[in-house]
């Protein structure tokens, strides 16, 4: 047995599945199924597998929440089975609950005579209600009448296909699939492939229709999908003929519940453009005959890349449009839709999620990682390529800075913990898999791809990627397959495997310390592993580090120390000049740092974010505030540099958890000074009164995001003018959401310690249950800003009232709220049993809640309390999140102990 991963025996390999679902009973949430699995007896080691069972009388596969009614084995000759082909019942069957495996034993004399069989299984299954497997979404279809509806859909990644049909549920065991589903005639039924025919179900008296779908190409079980519901749809086609040997345009549809399809128009248009783009960019046309986007009303993730039936949560695919009507369903383009969006900021999320999932159709679906330990080959690539596509179609969104803040920075923070993990991480069994769907696999994976592509050049990198896809399409691959192809495209000038292996196989990343030798006129660079705890690391890893100087010279640091001549740059010396390198830089001497500070205005937005992040991570709050003090001068940071502002404001907000209580009022004035009085009166307050003043601005999305951010910052700090403006809108007769500044209004009103009343809270809560799902996210984030202790209990009670899938928005706000977080922890402890019962329907929900809510707790007593509380708790599925939170609390405590006196002194002197 493989000592690293528990995998199925390789005695048999599945070639094809015939899946039939019928007797779907939504009153009892049950269904029946039949599956025929065509098997080949295997004699060689496959992919990830090194476990061979030589006795072919045993057949092992995966099931969970399934009851087997009958199973039998059909030996196959060169001709297909018919009614005269003998069938054999199992001698025994045994279920391993821990590994979710069912083993049948068949007569030895039967299995020894043939090499090809059909394993036929009749079974009963359960329609889940926890957003995984084959599950049910209940929702309100009409808010005025409170009419309830439901839909059925699937979420099989990572190991929940086994909940819907018995299968060999591992990514390397690819097969083809035929799916047949019987459902009431009033419902639309979808699957990965187009429907080829419909039949009246034999002997049915309930008007049941049998939907038969075309045979799929080779794919992994986790990518199989189907859905049943009362759907509307919009349809369009690719502009180019990319299907059927470039003879046909690809049909693309977006399916929604009744009455919502128009809200999917933007996502549909993004999909049509991006499929054409990826087909050309990767030089491999989209390989299936259609693609459907499906809005699923209850969803634990943003989306899932099922081959040609991509599923989304509503807020990741739907948005309202306003303005002129469209002539017909195909008469629109991205620019026009962006112009007529009622919430243009939501478009960024939708565009990125759609691009990410479409990237998966090549990276993950066409070519699949061999085992879950290399999930990053799927998710890192989809993250990276998703951003490439967004940048192509929306260059005015400053996507490089978006990637820097949303991806690169998040990965750096997590990977600075001892409780991080390598990108390629050991995954022993099914219980471990969900926890590797984290920022390391997605975002660090993306960052490493971004680093190598910027080093060797995008054109060369893409040539290697195309070679990788061509060599491995319809198969499984490893990182070395990818590295070899990129090196080949680079004509072996770069040994990509040597450069990147430590980045993938080792956890963490380096910090490069820069010192200046005045006598030798040279810079001395040393590198070591960076830990956010400030501890010295005994890690001996030597990472390949591209230094990325401003003059674009390809200088790499392959040793622990090196020197660089001071004359290498024409102006100031600055490493990682565009922040594509996944490492930190610390300028140890003031002269080098001050030269960077003096030229701050010359840095691009990514470099500014990276510099702020590096200084913050070093705990040098004097340098941090010196840099941030430059923000009040618009010559240093423009209103369109939203992500730079976002990094700055979040860095300032983190100081609230560090500075001593008696200095918080002084810190408040420091933050308001950085926002800038001139900017507040000349730009921000006029925008609050009338957001339409940016309507004709070419960068209105970025600028409105900056203005909303700065107004919210001032509002939360009780700036009188902002508070008055927000109160006027909040108490007015018009909908709060009629303004693009709705986030400002709600955050400001909810965050006032002295003036926010129960009446305000109840008004916002009422809005919560009357609003669209996108607006619900805004309201939940604002409700998490509560600082009035009289409202804490009412606020915490929302945990038991809102949909678990939306709890993360509250948790994020609570985690950033320095007033509420200790009270939340005490409430959580006291009510753990009822809270856990509510949110543990899906371990991902629990994991997010803990990591988001408690990441900024501070204090040795709280750390000890946190450790003791979870010591005797079952934490399967979120134990890594608990450990990482404990380490963050320890880090926060040390930062307060070492940084608070210095910070308080600096703030006092200002």
TrEMBL record:
Cofactor: binding comment: Binds 1 zinc ion per subunit.
Aminopeptidase N-like N-terminal domain mapped to chain residues: 13-223
Annotated family: Belongs to the peptidase M1 family.
Active site positions, chain numbering: 357 (proton acceptor)
Domain of life of the organism encoding this protein: Eukaryota
Protein name in the entry: Aminopeptidase
Molecular function terms, GO-annotated: metalloaminopeptidase activity; peptide binding; zinc ion binding
EC id: 3.4.11.-
InterPro entries for the chain: Aminopeptidase_N-like_N (IPR045357), Aminopeptidase_N-like_N_sf (IPR042097), ERAP1-like_C_dom (IPR024571), M1_APN-typ (IPR034016), Peptidase_M1 (IPR001930), Peptidase_M1_aminopeptidases (IPR050344), Peptidase_M1_dom (IPR014782), Peptidase_M4/M1_CTD_sf (IPR027268)
């Amino acid at each position: 047995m493989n000592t690293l991963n528990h995998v199925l025996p390789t005695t048999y390999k599945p070639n094809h599945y015939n899946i039939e679902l019928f007797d779907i009973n939504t009153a009892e949430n049950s269904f029946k199924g039949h599956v025929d699995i065509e098997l080949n007896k295997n004699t060689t080691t496959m992919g990830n597998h090194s476990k061979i069972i030589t006795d072919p009388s045993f057949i092992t596969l995966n099931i969970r929440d399934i009851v087997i009614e009958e199973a039998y084995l059909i030996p196959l000759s060169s001709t297909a089975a018919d009614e005269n082909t003998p069938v054999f019942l199992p001698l025994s069957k045994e279920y391993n609950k821990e590994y979710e495996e069912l083993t049948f034993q068949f007569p030895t004399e039967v299995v020894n005579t043939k090499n090809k069989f059909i394993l036929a299984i009749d079974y009963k299954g359960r329609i889940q209600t926890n957003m995984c497997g084959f599950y049910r979404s209940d929702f309100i279809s009409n808010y005025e009448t409170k009419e309830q509806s439901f839909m059925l859909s699937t979420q099989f990644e990572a190991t929940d296909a086994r909940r819907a049909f018995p299968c060999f549920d591992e990514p390397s065991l690819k097969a083809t699939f035929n799916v047949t589903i019987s459902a009431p005639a009033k419902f639309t039924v979808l699957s990965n492939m187009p429907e080829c025919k419909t039949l009246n179900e034999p002997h049915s008296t309930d008007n049941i229709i049998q939907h038969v779908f075309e045979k799929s190409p080779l794919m992994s079980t986790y990518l199989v999908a189907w859905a049943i519901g009362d759907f509307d749809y919009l349809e369009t086609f690719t502009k180019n003929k990319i299907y059927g040997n470039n003879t046909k345009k690809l049909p693309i549809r977006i399916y929604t519940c009744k009455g919502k399809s128009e809200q999917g128009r933007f996502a549909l248009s993004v999909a049509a453009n991006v499929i054409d783009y990826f087909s050309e960019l990767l030089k491999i046309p989209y390989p299936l005959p259609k693609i459907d986007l499906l809005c699923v009303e209850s969803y634990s993730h943003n989306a899932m890349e099922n081959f040609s039936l991509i599923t989304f949560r509503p807020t990741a695919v739907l948005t309202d449009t306003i303005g002129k009507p469209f002539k017909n369903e195909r008469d629109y383009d991205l620019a026009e839709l962006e112009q007529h969006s009622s919430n243009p900021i939501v478009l960024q999320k939708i565009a990125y999620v759609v691009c990410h999932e479409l990237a998966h159709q090549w990276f993950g679906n066409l070519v699949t990682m061999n085992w879950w330990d290399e999930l990053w080959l799927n998710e890192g690539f989809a993250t990276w390529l998703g951003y490439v596509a967004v940048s192509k179609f929306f260059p005015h969104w400053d996507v490089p800075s978006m990637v820097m803040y949303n991806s690169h920075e998040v990965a750096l923070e997590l990977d600075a913990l001892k409780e991080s993990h390598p990108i390629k991480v050991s995954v022993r069994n099914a219980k471990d898999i969900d926890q590797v769907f984290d920022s390391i696999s997605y975002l660090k994976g993306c960052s490493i791809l971004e680093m190598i592509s910027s080093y060797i050049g995008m054109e060369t990198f893409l040539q290697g990627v195309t070679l990788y896809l061509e060599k491995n399409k319809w198969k499984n691959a490893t990182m070395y397959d990818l590295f070899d192809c990129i090196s080949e495209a680079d004509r072996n000038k770069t040994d990509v495997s040597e450069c990147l292996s430590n980045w993938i196989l080792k956890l963490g990343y380096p910090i490069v310390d820069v010192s200046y030798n005045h006598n030798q006129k040279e810079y001395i660079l040393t590198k070591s592993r960076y830990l956010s705890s400030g501890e010295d690391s005994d890690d001996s890893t030597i990472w390949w580090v591209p230094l990325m100087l401003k003059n674009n010279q390809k200088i790499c640091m392959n040793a622990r120390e090196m020197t660089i001549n001071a004359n290498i740059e024409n102006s100031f010396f600055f490493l990682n000049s565009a922040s594509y390198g996944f490492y930190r830089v610390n300028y140890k001497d003031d002269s080098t740092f001050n030269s960077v500070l003096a030229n701050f205005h010359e840095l691009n937005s990514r470099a500014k974010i990276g510099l702020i992040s590096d200084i913050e991570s070093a705990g040098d709050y004097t340098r941090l505030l010196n840099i941030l003090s430059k923000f009040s001068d618009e010559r240093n940071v423009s209103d369109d540099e939203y992500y730079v502002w976002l990094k700055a404001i979040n860095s300032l907000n983190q100081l609230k958890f560090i500075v001593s209580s008696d200095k918080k009022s002084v810190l408040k004035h420091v933050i308001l000074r950085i926002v800038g009085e001139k900017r507040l009166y000349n730009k921000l307050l006029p925008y609050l009164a009338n957001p339409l003043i940016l309507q004709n601005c070419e960068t209105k999305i970025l600028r409105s995001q900056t203005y909303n951010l700065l107004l919210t910052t001032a509002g939360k700090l009780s700036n009188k003018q902002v508070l008055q403006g927000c109160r006027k809108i909040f108490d007015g007769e018009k909908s709060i959401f009629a303004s693009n500044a709705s986030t400002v209004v709600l955050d400001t009103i909810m965050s006032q310690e002295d003036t926010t009343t129960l009446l305000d809270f109840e008004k916002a809560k009422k809005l919560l249950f009357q609003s669209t799902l996108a607006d619900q996210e805004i309201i939940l984030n604002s409700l998490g800003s509560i600082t009035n202790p009289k409202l804490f209990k009412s606020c915490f009670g929302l945990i038991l009232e809102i949909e678990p899938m939306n709890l993360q928005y509250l948790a994020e706000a609570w985690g950033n709220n320095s007033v509420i977080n200790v009270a939340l922890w005490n409430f959580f402890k006291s009510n753990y049993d009822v809270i856990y019962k509510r949110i543990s329907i899906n371990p991902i929900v629990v994991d997010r809640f803990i990591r988001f809510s408690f990441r900024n707790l501070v204090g040795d007593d709280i750390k000890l309390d946190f450790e003791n509380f979870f010591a005797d708790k079952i934490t399967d599925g979120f134990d890594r999140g608990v450990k990482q939170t404990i380490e963050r609390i320890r880090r926060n405590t040390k930062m307060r102990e070492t940084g608070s006196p210095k910070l308080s002194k600096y703030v006092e002197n200002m």
